[in-house]
Each structure stands twice: as structure tokens, then as C-alpha cells.
């Protein structure tokens, strides 16, 4: 595969430079991961359509990247084309409804909504994701999840055709949705609730304070590594088997919250994977509970 030639051809339809062999450690919140063959950053609907069409025409494997949170990219990197959406951020408000393009970051969306006196998203304060990625995984906390607020989602299928999916047509479950197999998310429409601006901001600040006090946000991380098994909290199970502070290379089970694995510097994806498997095996052996990953894993090992 001639990456330079492919990048040059793809570049004709984009404003930002198409990158080749781009380390995805620069684009993930864990700050680790191998290179993408091609990385494109569309800034409009037209550019997004162009990227997806290019991947289809060239037969390239396609990966949609938001803010790189909740994601582990293996050290061998990702083949084909990675399309990063976060350069395309647009928000339109109509009454209590708010339409956001896939690359809109949740913190920015929350800020826009709060200024207009629109509440209901405060649970998402501090989640470093794009709305596109967040809706696919039904991001949330015990206080709420994104699926509760979704009115409709526009997706592009594998043939490039646009479809509008109403909430009733989407299955939202714990950290998962049927959107994962529906196509590429283009826009998300949410319905919020009218409230007083000071009250909304107070809840946002309270949630941010709670996150800072309980989660190791001072270190690169990808959020919760494991889903909470029914009736349990994954972090408490991991703590119960004595795994807090376990290290492999530069990766460590965080002392502040055991369901976080932090990059203490120079961690590799292999370090993280080894630590994940060690934790899973120990919890299964000692407690008889299987932990399921909440993060996505992309790419190839070395």
C-alpha cells in the first residue's frame, strides 16, 4: 500500500493535512498506541462524506475516532483509514432540542446547553468524549446516560446512505447501543429540560468536583476499564483482590480508583493489556466474577 499516494489523493478533498503513519498516542487520552496508516480530520459534513466514500472506493479498513477516550490502540497500530471527527463541531439549539455534530465534545456541548438554561446533561460533566462516540457507547454515570436524552441520530451506512433513527428504533443498554452496527454517526439530537442557569452550573461543578476527588484525572487514562457486573462495582471487586497499585511497565491500577489503569509515563498498550488480563484472571479466580471490558481495543500487537 502506497500511503503517500493515498494520502495525496485523499488530501484533494480536505482542508487539513492527511497524516501518514501518525502515532495514535497523540490522539488518545491514554497517550499510547501505535500508528494509523492514514489519519484524516474532516471539518464539515462534505469532508466527512468524502472520507467515507474514499475508504469505500479504495477498500480501506475504516475506523471512526472521536476524542480517543475509552479506547486502547495496540502498539502495532491501525491499518487503513482513521477518520477523526472532533474537528467538526457544530451545535444548533431549537427550543429544548439541541442538535450536535458527531465531533462535538461533551464538555463544550454542556457549556452551550447550560448557558441557554437547558439541563439534563449534568451527569456527563467531565466525560472527555465526543457526542458521536458517547452516544454509540451510551456513555453515562449512575445519575443518567445519554440514551435517556436522545431524540434521534443520523447515521451513514456502509454504502454512504443517510438514515435517521428515532430513539424508539435504537436499543440503548448499559454502555452499549445498537448504533455500533448501524453505521457512522453524523448528528445527534437531544431533548433537554428548561432550568435556571445557576442551578445547572451548580450541578455541573458538583459533578466535576466528585470526579476530580474520586478519579485519577492527573494521569493519562481512558476512564473505566471494565463494566460494572450486575449487582457489583468493578472498582470494588478489583480492590477486593488487592490489585490497587499493581504495575506492568508504565501502566498501573490506580490507587485512587481501581477501575482506572493509568499511564505513569512510557506505558505501552502491551503493558496495559497484560495488566488487564492479570486483573481479570485474579477477579475470576478469587471471586468467580468475569469482568467485561468497557473500553474498545483497536489495531494490532507488535
Automatic annotation (TrEMBL):
Catalytic activities: UDP-N-acetyl-alpha-D-muramate + NADP(+) = UDP-N-acetyl-3-O-(1-carboxyvinyl)-alpha-D-glucosamine + NADPH + H(+)
Listed GO MF terms: FAD binding; UDP-N-acetylmuramate dehydrogenase activity
UniProt superkingdom: Bacteria
Keywords for this protein: Cell cycle, Cell division, Cell shape, Cell wall biogenesis/degradation, Cytoplasm, FAD, Flavoprotein, NADP, Oxidoreductase, Peptidoglycan synthesis
Pfam families documented for this protein: FAD_binding_4, MurB_C
Domain FAD-binding PCMH-type as annotated: residue spans: 32-195
Single biological process term from Gene Ontology: cell division
GO annotation, cellular component aspect: cytosol
Pathway: Cell wall biogenesis; peptidoglycan biosynthesis
Localization of this protein: Cytoplasm
Principal location listed in the UniProt entry: cytoplasm
PROSITE patterns recorded: FAD_PCMH
Active site (record annotation): 175, 224 (proton donor), 294
Cofactor names: FAD
EC number(s) from the headed UniProt entry: 1.3.1.98
Function: Cell wall formation.
Family membership: Belongs to the MurB family.
Protein name stated in the entry: UDP-N-acetylenolpyruvoylglucosamine reductase
Source species taxonomy: Bacteria, Bacillati, Bacillota, Clostridia, Neomoorellales
Gene: murB
